[in-house]
Each structure stands twice: as structure tokens, then as C-alpha cells.
Fold these 2 entries.
Entry 1:
Amino acid sequence: MKTTKMNIKNLFLALLFIGAAGFTSAQTTQTDSAAATATATSQTSNPAVEELKKQIETNPKDTEALAKLATAYQEASDWANAVNTWKRISALLPDWAPSYYSQAYAYQSAKDDANAKAAYEKYIATVKPEEVEQNRKNLAYAYFYVAFAEQQGNPDKAKDYIAKSLQYDPSNQDAVKLSKALNS
């Protein structure tokens, strides 16, 4: 059990790093669907992915290998497989918040805003109080994303969420602008 907790902790720290890099990429990278499809197709012949798939066939509950596979899919912009793999991890570790954040990132990258919003909300709900401090940046972004998505349909919820976003990251200029727009 101690090894599992240690592996999960190490995996969590690695995913925080990946999430931070992915967060920047999600906000700045535009990919056209043809390039994404070509990359996804080439990913199926990636030896590392194939090796991870074999490892997972041997042990379908190996969450560390699943996370590596999901990350490999994300790096290849294979969003459908990334989402499905993160969902498998969430089924195995339903209280592990980073899997929901990673799902949201993959959905967002695939331009599936409704599912991205739902996954960010699940991430927010799953972060344990003792994990808040180490998740401040991701929480700030998750709250911002939901506030942005809700600004037209539910402005009161958007105001609450943008306030939370700024509580976690007051330096986010996009959140500051959204807050001003919502509160004017």
C-alpha cells in the first residue's frame, strides 16, 4: 500500500508539471484537425505507446502505466485516446483529482467545451482540502474556465467562480478582465 501511495504521489507531481506545461499549450496552441489526425494516426505506430499498451494488457489496473499512456496520447494530440485513458484512471482512482484536470485539458484541446467544463468542475470538487495549496494554479485555471463558460448562461455562477479563480491566482490577467466584465 505504501508503494502505491508513493507511486501515486510521484505520478501526481509529474502530472502537475505536465499539467502546467499543458496549461500553457492549451492557451497558446492552435492545431488544425488534419494535423491532429495525422499526428494521432502516426501515434499508433509509436513504439513507446505500443509498449505501454502491452504493459496495460498484462495489468489493466496499472495506473502509473495508464497515466504514461494518457500523457503520450496528449503529446501526440490524440485527444480521444487521451480522454479515454484518463477516464480509465478516474474509474480506478475516483478520488484522484489530477485525472479529472487532465481529462478537462484533453477535452478542451479537442474543442469539446461542454465535457471540458464538466471535467474541470469534477476536478474542483475532487481536490481535497489538504491538496489545495499544491493545486493553486490548476484550481485557478479550472475556476476561470468554468466562469468563462458560464458567463452568458449563468452570470451569478460565473461571478462566484471568477472570484475563486482570482483567490487562487490574482495575477491572471484574463481572470482579472473577466471579473471586471462580469462585475460591471
Entry 2:
Amino acid sequence: MTNPPARRPDDTVTAFLADFAATLQRHNLSLRTAEQRVPWSKSTISRAINGTVLPKAELVVDVLTAAGLPAHELDAWRARHAALAAAPAPAEAPTPSPAPPPTRRRLLMTAAATALTAAAVATLATVLITQDSSTATPPSTTTPPASRPMALEVQNKVALGATDLREDTSPVYLSTRTIAACSRHACKLEGTEVTSGALLVATCHTIGAELVNYNLDAPDSKTNPHATRSALWYRVRTSTGATGYLSEVYVLPRDRGGLGLPTC
């Protein structure tokens, strides 16, 4: 495995967090397992991975240690973290000095320039009004930047009865299509089976078939507080590099809703 590089001149907190999440994924370390091995909660680790600021060095080292990284790789991560933490904040723009009071000559020149500008604007407005409206250039639109990939945790559980939430007897898997029962429709991605606690990386979301995590024939299950139904699907990547779709009913409630990711 390639050691994490020391901080490069173009290194960023965003790149650090993305590499952090990818490393945990490669080592198959779920948030639930990490919580059992380190003095940090799942929610704290999740916020560190999906946040926008540099997490504490102790958290990073503890979690990577739990993932099984050897000492020399941990040292490289410490060095990279220290370099980012020591990077100077962007300098603030200097406050401009107050301009000297204008002289009478400058005031007269400014008034003349203002009058000429007003005349030019009036002339331009007249020309534009007389043009055919069909030749007008539509206003440009700005596409918001896409969010970075987000880590999410699998919850392969079913709502049973009025209150129970139990692990499904069959693992969930990724698919090439956003439909139910892909194992019967030749769209299952073999070798992508995962159970609750698995950590995946989501890059975008889309709308597909609506799925539920409860038995439609059981009236009590429909009112179970853990019951959910959704037509939203994530495009996710496994620790082996396989990429496919996963319905959001198979992830923790905190990881539902799109995570601010772009549409696929």
C-alpha cells in the first residue's frame, strides 16, 4: 500500500479528509467497529470525516491505528496533519487609507465626467430599446460547485412489528440499476455484499424505484418508528473500488436525504 504523502504545496483540508475516508474504506473499518476500538463516538468520527475543518490529530491517529495502519504510515499522517495545521491562514486585505478631500477642480471634473457618462448610458439605452428583442442575449447562469464525496454507513436492517429493528438475514448489495430485486434481474454487482456498519463513499444521488425496509403485509410494521420508504438512490463506491447504486433505505437515518451531493 502506498504511504500517505507528506503535505504538498497544493495540499488542502478537503484532500486530507477525502484520503482519510478512503483509507478507512480500504481497510474495511466501519464507524461502529471504530467506535469500539477508540475513545471517540461514531458521530464524532463521522463529523470529522464529512466536515470541512481539519479534525484533531489524536482522532485521526486513533482511528487509523484502529484500521491497522503500521507505525511508519501513522507517522506520515501525523506529519501531513501537522503541516496543514501549521499552514498560515490567508492574509486579510489591508484597509485602504482614506482618500484626501477632493479639490474644487476635481469636483468640477467629476461632475463633467458624470454628465458625459449619463449621456452615454442614455444613448446606449435608446439603441437597445430599438433592437429586436429576439437578439437579446439571455442572462448567464452559474452552476453551483459539486459537493465532494461523502462517507455513509450501511444499515441493512428491517423494521419488524411495532417497534423492532433487526439485521436482515441477507446482506445488501450494489446494483447497476435503481430497481428492486436486482439479483433476479441481472443487475446485481457480484462481490459487493455488505452488512450494517460498512462504510461506503457516496458521490451523487438519483431517483429510482421506491423501496421500503418493512413488510408491506404487516400492518404494525408500517407504523414502526424505524420504518422508512424512499425512491432516492446513492451512487456509492466500496473498499474494493466497485461502484454501483444503493437505496437510501439501507443507510443510517443521518445519512439519508441526499447529503448535499449532486444528482447523478
